[in-house]
Amino acid sequence: MAVLRAHGIDARLPAGFEGRIFRRAAAHGSVSRPVAHFATFPLPAGVGDFGNGAVTAMGPDDVLVVLFEYGPESVGTALFARQGMPTSLEPGHFSPITLRRGLGGQSGTQWFFVEQGRPFTLYAVLGSHAKRFALLPRLNSLLGNLVVAPVGEPAS
Amino acid sequence: MLALVVVDTVCVLLLAVLVAGLLRSHADILRALHSLGAGVGDPAERERQRDHGTGDRSGPLRIGPALAPNRNATAVYDVVGVSPDGDALSVSATAGPGNTLLVFLSSGCTTCAGIWRSLAPGSGQALPAGLRVVVVTKGSEHESPDEVRRVAPPGTTVVMSSQAWSDYEVPGSPFFVLVDTAEGRRSGEGVANHLSQVVQLVERARADGGDRTERDRAHLDGKEREAHNDRLLRRAGVLPGDPSLYPTRLEDVFAGDAAPGAHGPATLPR
Hints:
The complex is a heterodimer. Helix content of chain A is 8%, strand content 32%. By secondary structure, chain A is mainly beta. Chain B is α/β, with parallel strands linked by helices. Chain B contains 9 helices and 8 strands. In chain B, the strands form 2 sheets. In chain B, strands 1-8-7-4-5-6 form a 6-stranded mixed sheet. Chain B has a two-stranded antiparallel ribbon with strand order 2-3. The longest helix of chain B has 35 residues.
């Protein structure tokens, strides 16, 4: 099982998954935040924060997961009221209209939450809404292996 | 007269047993010579035949100088490391519909410089369409990320990972490993000084069945089909004991909002 660890995010990747954890170069005085991409298909170079450039490469049996961290000012806002990262999603959580870029047959879900004092959004895309029952165990096997370290601490 | 016939028959039977014993002994000797690499149909000769596209295909195709005979030439590993920009990166060599070519290069070697240039779009040295190319350099303890960034063509996936060099037992650079993603094994490997040699390797592997379509595989039968199905399930992350292999409701089997003919939770017999 491959292990990816950077920017306080620790991912033990189940078989068939690949991933990237990175921060974009800060521009114009802005502060860049960690982003993590995990996929069951080859992640192209230069994928957008929320999978732009990757979802078009997905097949119907593929899964894409994005973990995107927001600034600490988001903690305590209504959007980030949920405490804790979802570790197991269900078929009813997915809808084709949740996609940031609606591609035929795909399905998505998005969650905003605070984990270890850090505000994140989790965005997951399934290659086929019709296959969500079959794809979810694979996606959940990844979510169960993601660990976020508290602010300022490396993930274990 | 009868006694003579009986004695003659016994002699013939004894001789037949003797000949059978000699043939078996001969076969044992040939097998022993094979295992020592010095018999008729020398394994080394089979290796050479395979390199030239003939002979059996128990291992990957080879290009370039001979590699150590006792190396693990079939196992496939994820490539885990960092990008030249410092991103934590894990590349699955078995992900995706097409095959994967792992290109082991260094930023400093003269021969590698030509390969780096050949990988750039518009270099005139095109690799077959659908082939995923991943360049692997040693980690930052051996390579300068700035140098790697300088020579890496834009848009190319580059992973800096000394572990991958160790996993794939890379003897030196440039070294190439062609992975059959559907089978989850190496279909070719070796040293090449020019990308054109690698193109030939990919085409040979494809012609040799490395790129068989799913339709071809659907015609497998018996144990081959079972093994193929197991590989597909493993690739999909479904391992032995996975709950999806033991459905308890019709909804677990029929992906959709309702199972055929079902108007509420239905239970499958165990």
